[in-house]
Amino acid sequence: MVKAIQDHIPELDIWMDIHHMEDNINKGMAKGIADSAVVIVCMCKEYLTSENCNLEIQFAKDLKKKRIAARFFSESDDEIAEYSLNSEMNVPFLLTTGALHANFKEFLPGCSEWKDAVEIVVKQIKILVPRFKQPSVNSSDLFYATTS
């Protein structure tokens, strides 16, 4: 997903919590979130159960960072609903409520569904990050991209 986003917005700097970490993981995560204009929340079962990932999204909320939800669930809608009701897993759902979700599911990179999800993320970045705002991009484009 990172490469696909950078193909669309080459001048975008992307920090990931698996790179550029310092000796102290919490210090590295805090710096990465604090320095970010927007946080892309890559939600999957592993993310929902990760203490560090939950700390990241809570910190992003505390700093009032805009959040883009990217869902990578391979589970059925019923299982995802179950996760959202599970008190051990539901914080990321709460903190992305109201946000448009890009649904990557288990789609293969490059397929049309994957490209549609990338487009949703890219359009949100262009709306939410001031230096990438373009007059031709508006919220109605986002809603159109999700109808299928």
UniProtKB/TrEMBL annotation:
InterPro entries referenced in this protein's UniProt entry, alphabetically: TIR_dom, Toll_tir_struct_dom_sf
Record-linked Gene3D superfamilies: Toll/interleukin-1 receptor homology (TIR) domain (3.40.50.10140)
Ranges where the TIR domain occurs: 12-69
Highest taxon of the lineage: Eukaryota
GO biological process per UniProt: signal transduction
SUPFAM superfamilies, sorted: Toll/Interleukin receptor TIR domain
Protein name from the UniProt record: TIR domain-containing protein
Pfam families (UniProt xref): TIR_2
UniProt source species: Physocladia obscura
